[in-house]
């Protein structure tokens, strides 16, 4: 683990303290949660091929190469 240190104004600290208290978290847990929420995107891009791919099984007996196509989209043509 890495240690991150910063200075907060009294108002910033009070806001952080209240946030942590309202969530039942320690200050450290609250800071980690805030960082994750700010840095990690939690949304779906509607035009992303992984979400618009046709169903893998169209009907019985039909072979599909969906996993191969997913690999091509994710990792490139040379996979």
Q: What does it look like?
A:
By secondary structure, this protein is mostly helical. It has 2 domains: 10-39; 43-79, no CATH class. 52% of the residues lie in helices and 0% in strands. It is built from 4 helices and no strands. It starts with 9 loop residues before the first helix and ends with a helix. The mean pLDDT is 82.
Characteristic key phrases:
79 residues; mainly alpha; 2 domains; 4 helices
Query: Helix count?
Result: 4
Distance between the termini: 34 Å
The average pLDDT score comes to 82
- Give the tally of β-strands: 0
The level of helicity is 40-55%
Strand content: under 5%
Number of domains: 2
Provide a quick synopsis of the model.
The chain is 52% helix and 0% strand.
Write the layout of secondary structure elements.
Layout: H1 10-23, H2 27-39, H3 49-52, H4 66-75
